[in-house]
Design a protein that fits this description.
single chain, 228 residues, mainly alpha
């Protein structure tokens, strides 16, 4: 009886999906929104990377909600993992390869992360990707030297200031009579480093926020006592 009910439900669901999508044309719809953005974004926003124009200008409020979700997930994970490691049995340092690699890669990853963030309006990349690279730069030394700790208060301060800066830039655009997160300071020359108005500043805020959140979460993982 239970199997028959499941089959009836599945048949009804399939029928409903067919009824909904049958009148819709397949393969003939014109991507009007994408075409409009491709034509208007270089002049309106000034970002050579059109993805940046969508993420920070046309869809900026949705990006703010994504940052909120990331913050909530990191905070919840931090609460769950907030259990200190047993210091009576500290883990030994890693081998020579990981120790040398962490020392060598730390400044290189910092430079790479900042480059990806600062050039997000010109090339593929931006605050989310660059923030992950920055978090990795701070996490590698923790893997190599388990006794090392990061200053969680400092990372929380950076995260909070970065989030406040993101919202503040958006509110400044509204006070200037524009839409939330609309580019300020003009669009500049397309393809130049100082272009796209305030969008690079938004990506800096996103990169610092994502990097500090992820680095703090990974640090909690490294500092938490292993189960079993």
């Amino acid at each position: 009886m239970r199997r028959l009910s499941s089959l009836l439900f599945l048949a009804g669901l399939v029928t409903l999906i067919i009824a909904i999508f049958q009148p819709l044309p397949v393969g003939t719809a014109t991507p009007a929104v994408g075409t409009a953005i491709n034509h208007a974004a270089p002049e309106q926003v000034g970002a050579a990377n059109l993805v940046t124009a969508v993420v920070l200008a046309y869809r900026g409020f949705d990006t703010l909600l994504e940052l909120t979700i990331l913050f909530t997930a990191a905070m919840a994970a931090g609460w769950v993992l907030d259990k200190p490691r047993n210091e009576a049995r500290p883990d030994p340092d890693a081998g020579f390869i990981l120790l040398a690699a962490s020392d060598l890669l730390f400044p290189l990853l910092l430079i790479l992360g900042l480059y990806v963030i600062l050039h997000g309006h010109l090339t593929p990349g931006g605050g989310f990707q660059g923030g992950v690279v920055l978090a990795l730069a701070f996490f590698l030394p923790l893997l190599a030297r388990p006794g090392r700790r990061i200053d969680h208060q400092l990372f929380s301060l950076v995260e909070g200031l970065a989030g406040a800066a993101f919202i503040g830039i958006g509110l400044a655009a509204m006070l200037n009579g524009q839409a939330f997160l609309a580019p300020l300071f003009g669009t500049g020359e397309l393809g130049a480093l100082f272009s796209a108005g305030s969008l690079p500043l938004l990506y800096i805020a996103v990169g610092l926020k994502v990097g500090s959140e992820l680095a703090g979460l990974l640090a909690h993982l490294a500092e938490t006592e292993a189960v079993g």
